[in-house]
Specification:
The protein contains one helix and seven strands, in the order βββαββββ. The protein has a three-stranded mixed sheet with strand order 2-1-3. The chain has a two-stranded antiparallel sheet with strand order 4-7. A two-stranded antiparallel ribbon has the order 5-6. A hairpin with a 3-residue loop joins strand 5 and strand 6.
Length: 114
């Protein structure tokens, strides 16, 4: 069964999320009836996901493709111990990438573009 984890933001606000049980058999433990306390702030928990998104954007914005827009979708799982991790989906990791190009005023110049 999934449990609740409470993260604090850097400005002191509470963020309570539903977290999945750890696969190692560990259980979320809280004092009293409240949610388990996370070891990190909410911002620190998301830092790894932000870094992954930043790296992915650099890869997709560089090179010959030159899309007008890049959209990344991560499945994120929150854990009291590990913070935020990219969730496992039907593949090994959950990442959806959408690249889009806008029509150009000069059609001949972009004829080779997808």
């Amino acid at each position: 069964m999934d449990g609740l984890v409470e993260f604090k933001t850097e400005d002191g606000a509470r963020v309570v999320v539903e977290a999945v049980d750890e696969e190692t058999g560990a259980r979320l433990v809280s004092r009293g009836d409240g949610p388990a306390q996370a070891a990190r702030t909410f911002e620190n928990a998301l830092e790894g996901v932000r870094a992954a998104a930043d790296s992915a954007l650099r890869v997709f914005r560089s090179g010959a493709l030159r899309p007008d827009a890049v959209e990344l979708e991560f499945g994120v799982r929150l854990s009291a111990e590990a913070g935020a991790v990219i969730a496992k989906g039907s593949a090994e990791g959950h990442l959806v990438v959408r690249l889009t190009w806008s029509p150009s005023a000069t059609d001949g110049e972009d004829a080779g573009r997808p």
